[in-house]
Amino acid sequence: MPQSADKVKDHISLFKEPEYLELFASKKAQFECRPTDEAVAAQAEYTKTWEYREKNFAREIATINPAKACQPLGAVFVAAGFEGTLPYVHGSQGCVAYFRSHLARHFKEAVPIVADSMTEDAAVFGGLANIVEGLQNAYTLYKPKMIVVSTTCMAEVIGDDLSAFIATAKEKESVPADFPVPFAHTPSFVGSHTTGYDNQMKGILSYFWDREAQLTAAAGDKINIIPGFDGYAVANNREIKRYLDTMGVDYTFIGDVSDVYDTPSDGEYRMYDGGTTLDETRAAINAKATIGLQEFCSLKTLEYVATKGQQTAAFNYPMGIGATDAFLMKVSELTGKAIPASIEKERGRLVDAITDSQAWLHGKKFAVFGDPDFTLAMSAFLMEMGAEPTHVLATNGAKEWEAKAKALLASSPFGASGQVWAGKDLWHLRSLLFTEPTDFIIGSSYGKYLEKDTGIPLIRLTFPIFDRHHHHRFPTFGYQGALRVLVEILDRVFEVADESDISFDLTR
Ligand code: SF4
C-alpha cells in the first residue's frame, strides 16, 4: 500500500505512486477506447489553427464553457443583501445546490438558499403545492424577516405563476398575509445571472414601493446605491461606503451582501447578517437619485426607479482612474458634497504607482473575459496603464455592450488593435488565443483551462474565483481597489519575467 495510517500521503504525491500509475494505465488501455496518443495530439494541434477557428466561430447551437451563470444565481445573490432575508427558489433542487456551491466556493461562506424541490409530479401538475408547503416550512424553520422567490427553468417551462401562487399560499396561511414575499420570474434560458440580479432587484423594490410604501417626504439629497452582481462585493461595497461616508453623503446601499458573505468566526452562526433593512428599502423611494454601479445589472431596475420621479445614473464598475472620477463627480453633483482632499490624495497615489510601473505594462496585450460591466472597466483601466486589451469577451454581452466596448477601445490608441466578442464563450476565446495570442489573460478561475492549453498566464480578477482564497476580501473598486488590481497584474508580469533566464533579476 502506498500509504498507511502512520504515513498519510497528500493526493499530489499519492497518485504518483506505482500502484496508482498502473491503475490509470490499465483503465486507459481497457476501458477508455481512446484513439492513439498521436491521433489525439494531431487533433489538438489542429484546434490551434485558423481553419479550426473559422469552424469554431461558425458554431451556432452549442455553447462550450460560457463565461456566465444562469438568472436565479443573480437573483439569490440580490436577495441575500437584505436584512433577515431568505432566498427561496421555486424549482428543482439540483439547480439550487449549484447556486449554493458556486457562491460558497467563491466567498468561502455558508450560503443559505432554500428550494421547494419540484420533481416529476410538479412538472405535470404545476408547483403550487410546492410553494404552499415550501413557504410554510421556510418561514417556520428559518424565521426570516422576508422571503424572496425566484424560479428555475423547470418552473418557467411549465409556466407557473408566482404572483397567483404566493397569493394562494398566503390565503392558506403558509406565511402571514402581511409577511413580505417579493418575487421575480428568472427564466434561465434568457439572459444570465446579471439579468437575474436586475429582475430580482426590481421585484424587491416594486414589492415595497408599489404595494406598501408611499412617498412620505419631499426628496432631499439622499441617494440610493445599487451595486450589481459582484464577486468582490464584500470589500467593494465597504469601499464605496467608505467614500460616501468620507464625503458626508446621506445614502442607502440597496442589496448589501458585504456582511452576510463575510461573517466572523466567533462561535455564533449567523444565517442572516447585515443587509439593507426592510425599513431602509421602503424609505429608499424618497431618495433624490439612484445610482447603479453596474449598468448591465440594473437596466430594468433603473428604468423602474425613474418612474418614481428619481434621477438615475449608471456606471460600468467604478474601477480605475476615469471610472472612479466619474462616479465621485456624479455623487458630488447629485448631493452637493465636495470630494475631500483625502480622496484626491488617494487618486494621486494611484497615478504615482501607475507611473512607477508603466514601463512594465506599456504595450502588453491582454485578453479580458467576464461580465459586461467588468470587462468595460478592466479594459478602460488597462488602457489607462498603457496596456492593450486585445480580446474583450462577454458571453452575456449583447449589442449595447458590444457598441460600448468598441467605442471605448476606439477612444484610446491602446485600444486600436482591440477586438470585441459579444456572446462568445471560452472555447471561442481558446481559438482566439491560439491564432492571435496575448501576453496575459484576465478573467475568472475558469480561465485556468485556457492557461493550461495555451501557456498564456492567467490573472484572476473576477467572479468566480474558486481556486484561490480571499481575493474578494480586498476591494477592486475606486482608487485603492485599482491599486490592488495594478499590483496583481504586476506580480504576474514579474513572475513571467523571472521565468526567463535572461530576465531573472532582483530589482524591477
Ligand atoms: S440553467 Fe436552468 S436547469 Fe440549469 S441550473 Fe440554471 S435554472 Fe437550473
Radius of gyration: 25 Å
CATH domain class of the largest domain: Alpha Beta
Bound molecules: iron/sulfur cluster
Number of domains: 3
Structural class assignment = alpha/beta
Estimate the helix proportion, in percent: 40-55%
Put simply, the count of helices is 21
Going across the major beta sheet, what is the strand order? 10-9-8-11-12
Annotated CATH homologous superfamily of the largest domain: Nitrogenase molybdenum iron protein domain
Assign the CATH topology of the largest domain: Rossmann fold
Function: This molybdenum-iron protein is part of the nitrogenase complex that catalyzes the key enzymatic reactions in nitrogen fixation.
Domain Nitrogenase molybdenum-iron protein beta chain N-terminal: 1-56
Cofactor: [8Fe-7S] cluster
EC number: 1.18.6.1
Describe this structure in words.
With 508 residues, this protein is of the alpha/beta class. It folds into 3 domains: 71-195 and 203-212, 3-Layer(aba) Sandwich (Rossmann fold); 223-342, 3-Layer(aba) Sandwich (Rossmann fold); 347-503, 3-Layer(aba) Sandwich (Rossmann fold), CATH 3.40.50.1980. The protein is built from 21 helices and 12 strands. The strands form 3 sheets. The protein has a 5-stranded parallel sheet, with helices on both faces. Helix 5 (71-79) crosses helix 11 (193-212) and helix 8 (128-142) crosses helix 10. The radius of gyration is 25 Å and the shape is globular. It starts with 10 loop residues before the first helix and ends in a 9-residue tail after the last helix. The model has no long low-confidence stretch (mean pLDDT 95). Iron/sulfur cluster (SF4) binds at residues 70, 72, 95, 98, 152-153, 188.
